[in-house]
Design goal:
It contains eight helices and four strands, in the order H-H-H-E-E-H-H-H-E-E-H-H. The chain has a single domain, classed as Outer membrane efflux proteins (OEP) (Up-down Bundle), CATH 1.20.1600. The two termini are 37 Å apart. A four-stranded antiparallel beta sheet has the order 1-2-3-4, with helices on one face. By secondary structure, it is α+β, with helices and mostly antiparallel strands. Strand 1 and strand 2 form a beta hairpin.
């Protein structure tokens, strides 16, 4: 019987084992160079610990805390464990299942023993032994299920790296915003002190009769306006510092670092090599590709459901009516069976499942192509934005130098009593505006560099991720 079923399965396999999923080709258009940079292929990818190039011990400490304590990263690690467990579950049916059984049955029936007397008969049966069951994977369904689970395990690892990169850049971005706010507060305090000094000089001139009440009021309005901006900046700074607690997975009270200044930090260089290398540098692209592999395997699983499922089973052991003789040679028994099942009419369920799998694959294929195009776009935008932000900072520094000279001259003339008050007010306002703008422009440059590092994958490569070894058939990864 078993031989017959095997021959039947082999014959069916000749017509159905080549289950080509018929999925579209995974093709993406890869540019030869990045549009935003004049260099053709000369560049260098960020290192794995690129943030150390900013030369900020506080930033290094915060990122270390974030990588260890981020709840988002911990959740991603838990998803990796779930995916690995699912690989073990999917791989288990590829080997026979072995089980052991033991039964003790007893029965008594009543009836007429003879025509004149009633009685009963009693029977008892004891059996013990192992059993084996195995589903023949003629159509590759079990293998495809395992392939899908392994692709999902790869996705979970790449997704974890994406989350880690997001946490690192978010910590750095929040820290830079805190530094920029501290710089703006320092600018406001400095300008407030200068404006107060000029106000004292104007009041002295009023007492001497050389300045009017309007001159005093105008300077008082400037002083009040500068003073009013400081609490708002401090509030924003407090919010950024509290936000660091969420990113590193600690309560706000545990964040002990205090902001300094963006002007004390270095700006490490960043460049991009040929665009084709980006496909192995971005964890989100690798994750999208892994999802696509899982969807392709799921199509094969759905196609295999159209074909018969063939199973083998065998059992053996000892069986007897008495425990004392249970393990004797005469109590041995063995049996084997083969079965095949095929759905005839399911109201289109299997066809619907197959079309669902194909539709999911097409969706993920579009998502993958979009992820690749988005990656190239992110790099181009990052390079362009950082270059223009660098140019803007140079120009803004030049504007500050000019405004500083004008304010110094106006202040000296006010103190000497030889300058028009309106001119001094304009010089002060221009300097304050330019200094505050410089702090914001420098922050924009740091943020642009962060975006570029993230667009380049943050020093990540596909080879950095260790995949589970295929020892799943022994029950472990």
């Amino acid at each position: 019987m078993i031989q017959g079923m095997l021959w039947l399965g082999c014959a069916l396999a000749l017509g159905g084992c080549a289950l080509d999923p018929g999925t579209p080709e995974v093709t993406v258009e890869i540019p030869a160079t990045y549009r935003a940079t004049p260099e053709s292929a000369a560049g260098a990818w960020p290192s794995a610990e690129w943030w150390q190039g900013f030369n900020s011990p506080e930033l290094d400490s915060l990122i270390a805390q974030g990588r260890d304590g981020s709840l988002d990263i911990q959740a991603a690690i838990a998803r990796v464990r779930q995916a690995d467990a699912q690989v073990r579950v999917a791989g288990a049916p590829l080997l026979p299942a072995v089980n052991a059984t033991a039964t003790d049955s007893w029965s008594r029936s009543y009836g007429l023993k003879t025509l004149k007397s009633a009685g009963y008969t009693e029977s008892r049966s004891l059996s013990v032994g192992p059993g084996i069951s195995y589903e023949l994977d003629f159509w590759g369904k079990l293998r495809a299920t395992l392939d899908s689970a392994e692709a999902s395990a790869r996705f979970s690892r790449f997704d974890q790296q994406t989350v880690a990169l997001t946490v690192v850049t978010s910590v750095a971005s929040t820290w830079f915003q805190a530094l920029a706010l501290q710089d703006r507060i320092d600018v406001a305090n400095r300008n407030l002190g200068d404006a107060d000094a000029i106000l004292s000089a104007i009041r002295a001139r009023q007492d001497a009769g050389t300045a009017s009440l309007l001159d005093v009021s105008q300077q008082e309005a400037l002083v009040a306006g500068i003073r009013a901006q400081i609490p708002g900046l401090r509030s924003q700074l407090s919010q950024q510092m509290l936000g660091l607690g969420i990113l590193v997975g600690r309560p706000p009270e545990a964040i002990t670092v205090r902001p300094g200044t963006l002007n004390a930090l270095s700006l490490p260089p960043a460049a991009a090599d040929v665009p084709s290398a980006l496909l192995a540098r971005r964890p989100d692209i690798a994750a999208a590709e892994a999802q696509l592999d899982a969807a392709r395997a799921n199509i094969q699983v759905a196609r295999a459901d159209f074909f018969p499922q063939v199973s083998l089973s065998a059992a053996g052991g000892w069986q007897n009516v008495g425990l004392a003789a249970l393990f004797g040679p005469t109590s041995l028994f063995a049996n084997a069976a083969a079965s095949a099942s095929q759905a005839i009419f399911d109201n289109g369920q299997r066809a619907g499942s197959l079309e669902l799998s194909r539709g999911k694959y097409d969706e993920l294929l579009a998502d993958y192509r979009k992820a690749v195009l988005q990656a190239f776009t992110d790099v181009d935008i990052g390079i362009s934005t950082y270059r223009l932000a660098t140019e803007q900072e140079v120009l803004q520094r030049a504007a500050v130098e000019v405004a500083q000279r004008a304010a110094d001259i106006a202040r000296a003339q006010v103190l000497a009593g030889t300058s028009d008050i309106v001119t001094a007010l304009q010089a002060q306002t221009t300097l304050f505006t330019d200094l505050d703008a410089l702090a914001q422009v420098r922050l924009a440059r740091f943020q642009a560099l962060l975006s570029l590092y993230k667009a380049l994958g943050g020093g990540w490569t596909k080879s950095d991720v260790t995949m589970p070894a295929r020892t799943i058939y022994q029950g472990s990864i």
